[in-house]
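Structural prep section.
Before we set up the soaks we want a predicted structure of the protein with zinc ion in place, mainly to decide which crystallisation condition to try first. Input record follows.
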Amino acid sequence: MGPVRLVESVRCVREDGGVLLVRGREALRVSVRAGRTGEFVEALRGGTTVEALGSIAAPERVRALFGKLDSLGWLTGEEAHSEQAVPWDRQVGWFTALTPDAQAAQRRLCGSEVGILGVGGIGGPAAQHLAAAGVPRLWLIDHDRVAVHNLNRQYLFGSEDIGRPKTEAAADALRRLVPEVEVRTVDRRVSGTADLDALPASLDLLLLAADRPRTIGETAWEWARATGTALLGGAVGLDTGCWGPLLDPAQGHCLHCFEARRSARFSSVERELESRSDPTPYSFGPTNALIAAFVARDALLYLGTGRCESQGRRVVMDVLGIGGRREEATADEARCERPGGEGHSGGGPSPGSAPAAAAPAAADAAQAPAARTAMTPAPATTNGTGRHA
Ligand SMILES: [Zn+2]
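Run finished without errors. Recording the tokens verbatim:
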């Protein structure tokens, strides 16, 4: 075993008789020989071995400590991260709160390519997060033009952009913010999977941040399934927002099976309400930004580590409640019951699945890129768990 070191997210607090190691709500007290604490911390931070630390603390204790640190995910074999003059430099240490292979995660991010369908209140801020975090290639697809009433939440645009294609204005803004990013634009209305063929099949992830037409979720999923691309959507309404499920064809996920399971929890009234719901034309910048940030967070974690909270499930957040009530679907609700998912091809939910109107999209309430914008989830959809808001 080569040298290992503490990951950046673990803090070392010196105290009498040793050092307290802290990350989040976990702490570990370590005894160190008198007068050697500074040396001990420096060695743990810089990279060391059981043998080398044996002169500072009893070897059997060091061995036990390494075992404990390793089980906590607090040790890494990666060399210390050398800071670079890039916007995303400081997040590498943050990643060590999730994975000891933080630099490998950042390298994966820095090698990824993401498509964003809908550059509105969710897609625009999400694009900004992705570019700033180091995603080097973005594809933006939208047909809409910037309107003055977009400006309360679509922060990539300014009043000088009114009337411009959203894709073009967003690309300019992203290049201004992060000159390293390569942005390609597709100024097109998406009404079928053929429209998405303008995107490369090599995308690592497609973000669904549009809600029109009503079948956009189905369309995006058909394309994602056919190309083996992961799909993640987000949406926000008046009182709740949601994101997920992240559907990964390689993991056997399936939109149809997800919607069927979700719909099965609804009462007949809830199903009817969902099928009849219309999106709200109203929107509030902070709640859009909140959900867009969660979409971006999960996208980045998925790209970097292969895991994120909304994988296979939809996360729902009360964006009005002061307590921030939050409900989650159970894990892996998107597992397909038909191996390969082939049984669902040809469009439309399968027989026995959710009613068509209740199975619209991964982002059935996304902020509309269109002028009359915001969609709100129907009462039954708003919390995604079959309860009324
Ligand atoms: Zn299925």
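Observations: The longest strand covers residues 230-236.
Flagged for discussion at group meeting.
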